[in-house]
Specification:
single chain, about 80 residues, mainly alpha, 2 strands
Length: about 80
């Protein structure tokens, strides 16, 4: 088996590639929730919630941590040069 540059692939490359693909989805599949949220009347008026695979999901407990939220905001300001 050869790659795009003509180098021979290692025997484990195909196995690793196959295993990684089990956890990946296509860009089209990945966009489905965003498209659903932007166009569906079923979710009209719902804001500030976490969705995955077109279903509302519980966010992690860290999302409710006010101290962590403030730290993230301050870091974002510093990294973007706002402050």
């Amino acid at each position: 088996m050869w790659d795009l540059w003509g180098a021979q692939k290692k025997w484990y490359h195909s196995i690793l590639t196959g295993m990684i693909k089990l956890f990946l989805i296509s860009a089209e599949e990945g966009a489905q929730t965003s498209i659903y949220l932007a166009s569906s009347w079923e979710v009209k008026g719902i804001t500030g919630k976490y969705f995955a695979k077109k279903k509302m999901k519980a966010a992690s407990k860290k999302c409710s941590d006010i101290k962590l939220q403030k730290e993230l905001w301050q870091l974002s300001e510093r990294l973007t040069g706002i402050k």
